[in-house]
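Please go through the sequence line and token line underneath and see whether the fold suits the sequence. See right below:
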Amino acid sequence: MDYRFKLCFCRDIYDHKQNDRAFMEAVHRNVDCHLLKCEDYRRILESRGFSREDGKRVTDVGEVPCIPTLFFKYHDLHSMPESAMVVKATSSGTKGVKSHIGFDKKSLFFGGIAACRVIARHGLFSMRPARYSGVSARKGQSDGDQQDPAAQHDVCPGAQPAVCAAKGKERISARF
């Protein structure tokens, strides 16, 4: 069984007693995979005194040396051939330099499952139709109250299935 399967399909995503063993197995397997398949990653960790054997003995994720995100803006690290990356994402580059990341099919599958489980757990999606429109400009106002004319419109005019939020407003407006 894929170690990620155990982690993604556990009974309760927030039950640390149940999931810690699967999580640490995932950490061990991921660190080992990257150390074996990415020479640059191996050299970075070895320069910090961290070996493949250390990766197998880690008891806390904090023991794995971190690589600052700034590093990825100037260096590419790949643990798989680019041809295996079914999705390649690029950061927005808000500071002028973009970083890149790639995902293979299995990583996308398990990442999607994990995201869906968190979303479902917190009730962020519902099959029940809802038609909310209108955002109160001031705290305590309802749709029927007198509002600022600028606030008397759909937050996302013409939106089809989407969730929209008006930052800084009293309520969230959405159309499903």
Remarks:
- The mean pLDDT is 78.
- The radius of gyration is 22 Å.
- Residues 165 and 172 are 5 Å apart (CA to CA).
